[in-house]
Design a protein that fits this description.
Length: 345
């Protein structure tokens, strides 16, 4: 499956956010600023969750461009044992036994679900406050007879169901059509280390019409983190560094599956130095501006030898030191990290 891609410069890095939903997405990758590539994506069975939103772990080992279609649905796995047939019930209460699964005919979720039970009516202040909260896989809750609303969250996915408790034990199964997404970045065959790259996740495709200013559902997701999202298509913005090495991609995540995605950047890390002679010591207290050939400011920094990650292309370095200005043009080649010396002459 092919898709065109687009990218745009941006600066800064955003803070991380919690996760809420699960998605089914189609792999597509946008290359840096100069060419369009395809992302690598594979799927595997989603591992059991242990109650956290983002799980650090190793990234995938995908190195080749191109699209891998989602793997066929695996045979159903053995579900966790059901709640006891005769749960202990307090006098004057009714037992509510809860379980969750990824979807119809899919495995039961064995951890990571947060359960909250609300009254179906607001309190005197007009608010709905949780009466019970539980984080076990198959909780059995004791509640007075009445009508309630059960809310379950798994990562960014959620489900709601109304229940009526009278006298006998009530058993409810909620379906949470959720999947996992794990992303890593590469330059050529080299994996971009954690701390140098982050991913912002948006609901829907980058090519959909609508509000382009909508906020991401998750910010600054790290390499190897597992993001749990609802069914749908997602737009991934990969930020390598904090200047213009930005790649935009669309991805589709399958319910009950972990999708590994590799984003390929065409960029390199450049160290800037203002020197009196070639190979000489860098001059301190230097103000730097990196410009595009059209004169657009790409990056500003201060220091003797600042490092900047730049997308492949042509640039001009402007160094200001002791009231004097020195310039040099240079070219960034994908994967070729190095130094750019500006002579103070």
């Amino acid at each position: 499956m092919m898709a065109t891609t687009a990218s745009s410069p941006r600066g800064g890095r955003v803070l991380s956010a919690k996760i809420l939903l699960l998605a089914v997405l189609t792999p597509t990758l946008a290359a840096a600023q100069t060419s369009a590539l395809q992302p690598s994506a594979t799927t595997s069975t989603l591992p059991p969750m242990d109650g956290v939103y983002s799980i650090p772990g190793p990234g995938s080992s995908l190195v080749s461009p191109g699209v891998s279609m989602p793997a066929p649905l695996p045979p159903p796995v053995t579900a966790a044992p059901p709640p006891p047939s005769t749960p202990l019930v307090q006098a004057g209460h009714v037992a509510l036994a809860l379980t969750a699964r990824f979807g119809r005919d899919l495995p039961q979720i064995t951890g990571g679900v947060i359960w909250r039970v609300y009254s179906n009516r607001p309190d005197q202040s007009g608010s709905f406050r949780p009466l019970k909260e539980d984080r076990s896989a198959t909780p059995v809750l004791n509640l007075p007879p009445g009508n309630y609303v059960v809310h379950a969250t798994f990562g960014l996915a959620s489900a709601v169901k109304t229940v009526q408790l009278r006298s006998d034990t009530v058993r409810e199964m909620l379906e949470l059509p959720a999947g996992g997404l794990r992303i890593e970045g590469r330059v050529g065959d080299a994996k971009i280390p954690a701390g140098h790259i982050t991913f912002d996740i948006y609901k829907g495709s980058q090519f959909e019409s609508g509000d382009k200013s909508r906020p991401p559902i998750a910010r600054a997701v790290g390499t190897g983190d597992i993001l749990l999202v609802p069914d749908g298509t997602y737009h991934i913005v990969s930020n390598y560094g904090d200047s213009n090495a930005v790649v935009r991609s669309d991805i589709r995540v399958q319910t009950g599956k972990l999708t590994d995605m590799t984003v390929t950047h065409r960029a390199a890390m450049i160290t800037l130095k203002l020197v009196n002679d070639r190979g000489g010591e860098a001059l301190a207290n230097t103000d730097w501006i990196v410009e595009s050939p059209a004169g657009d400011i790409i990056k500003e920094s201060i220091g003797a030898f600042p490092r900047v990650i730049l997308a492949e292309g042509d640039y001009r370095a402007v160094a200001r030191n002791e009231g004097k200005v020195f310039t040099r043009t240079f070219k960034v080649i994908t994967g070729v990290d190095g130094e750019v010396e500006v002579l103070a002459r």
